[in-house]
Amino acid sequence: MQNKTIEFIELENKIGDFIEYWGFKGIEGKIWLNIFVSNEPMCPEDIMNSLSISKALTSNSLKRLVKFKVLEKAHVGNHGTQFYRANKNVTKVIKDALRMRE
Question: Could you tell me which residue, 12 or 100, shows the higher pLDDT?
Answer without folding.
Answer: 12
